[in-house]
Amino acid sequence: MSGSNHGGHPHRSNRRLRKPRGEGRSSDGGGRGGRGRGRGGDSPHPTGGGQGYVTSGRAEPIPADLPATNFATFGLAPPLEAAIAAVGYVDPSPIQAAMIPLVLNEKNVVGQAQTGTGKTAAFLIPLLGLLDHVEDEEIVARGEPAGPVRILIVAPTRELAIQIAKEADKLTRFVPVRTVCCYGGTPIDQQLRALKDSTVVVGTPGRLLDLIGRGQLKLDQLDAIVLDEVDRMYDLGFREDVDRIMEAGRARQQTVLTSATLNSDVEDLIGKHVGEHERVIIETNSLTVESIDQTFYFVDPRRKQDLLLAVIDKLKPAKGIVFVRTRFSVDRLTHHLQQRGVAAELIHSGLPQRKREQILELFREGRFPLLIATDVAARGLDIDDITHVVNYDIPNHADDYVHRVGRTARMGKEGAAVTLVTQDDGPFLTQIEKLINKEIRQEAFPGFEVDKPIPREERVQAREAERPPGLPPWATVRRRRR
Ligand code: AMP
After folding, report:
1. Which fold has domain 292-451?
2. Which of 147, 276, 317, 348 is surrounded by the fewest CB atoms within 10 Å?
């Protein structure tokens, strides 16, 4: 790696001045060059699987033969730069190039970017870079993790929280920084134990508030709060929780906020909690990346399942996600596909957390090609090499479209997004096109053309077929958005 560039450090003085902590800290800004003399050796940062996610926090020695990276220009401490090289990042992505220097200069930053742009590392690298742990020789030499909590990252879903914790784990490989990931649905004991010597805490709003309320998560020495995918948090009904977490934090902590869309709700939150800040906006004109080939098929609602089978047969996705509106439809559609010999598995929030994690892991490993999912379950998934996204049901909220298709074509790779659109879906399609500021290309699938409007009774019948059994005919099936 290209490690040893920098002499002076432009970024750190303020942070050091305003931190009152004493023990084991050097205040001279030196300590550079401390190679990880931690214990390392055993598997670096094991995780707890279904038990939650806690990293070991022990520092590993830095190998001698790491490749050079173009992250050297940021003047990061050697153990952090080494970790970036070890992960295999060579060039900063656009959001990283824009955000890293701002965050290193301790600015509050609002980043408009979707997943797949490298936004996680865009806030993690500089925030970790500001920790003493990465430069202070004594701390690095001790090699053992220690509290207090200095960085708190709030994420809308468990899956996203785990992704962030994994990224933090990779980036802290050569420094004694422990990350604990706190989310509901798993035993709390391990998280409680780990909180004692964790520097980085990632979690979902409910569990974090719970821990703050019990006095187990103390924020009095916090340097920074990250609110990741804030628009998602609002969609999921976490508005008040986010307010309460921000109020529990330290008054002068640094705040980084990311959101795929900056709607008026998000702007309100920024006004209320972030204060003076810099903005980084990636892809303003087109929210969906250019390298995603986006098409839609107009379809008779009664023939959606058949068309999906035909589309799968045509595209032969190596790793595809099919988005479906409700858990009930996910179950039904997956069963239908499996019966027709398609190797598909399902994921939705009705499955136990452990099962969801297992399925994701198998999908990530490429053990089956097709995942049938609801929005909530698939939110924030960081799975490499998604080749196809199919919107079996068009999303009723344009933002969801951006999030769904953002699963593919990550970090400059190619991807395709196909949407099935019925007669009734027209307004949703228009909203989506307005939001992404781009026309989605219509294609005709031979044998599935719809040339005349479908009579109303048939549309009603088709909708009835989507209804979970046991519901009275007058009950409408609504997507739950708290
Ligand atoms: P994110 O937008 O944070 O969800 O990141 C998307 C994916 O890009 C993740 O798999 C990251 O590991 C990867 N990634 C992040 N930064 C870089 C980089 N500079 N070079 C290559 N891959 C990256």
Report:
1. Rossmann fold (3.40.50)
2. 276
Cα angle at 295 between 292 and 296, to 5 degrees?
145
Beta bridge mates, 280: 111
Cβ of 93 below 6 Å from ligand 1: yes
Cα–Cα distance measured from residue 14 to residue 104, given in angstroms and rounded to the nearest whole number: 11
Ligand 1 atom with the shortest distance to the CA of 380: 4
Superfamily per CATH, domain 53-281: P-loop containing nucleotide triphosphate hydrolases (3.40.50.300)
Domain boundaries, the chain: 53-281, 292-451
Residue 379 Cβ contacting ligand 1 at under 6 Å: no
Q: Which atom of ligand 1 is nearest to 91's Cα?
A: 19
Tell me the whole-structure pTM to 2 decimals: 0.63
CA distance 376 to 157: 8
- For the Cβ of 411 lying below 6 angstroms from any atom of ligand 1, the answer is yes
Query: H-type helices in 316-347, by residue range?
Result: 327-339
- Check for a shared fold between 53-281 and 292-451: yes
Each residue's pLDDT tens digit, 413-435 = 678 899 999 988 988 998 888 77
Q: Ligand 1 within 6 A of 121 CB?
A: yes
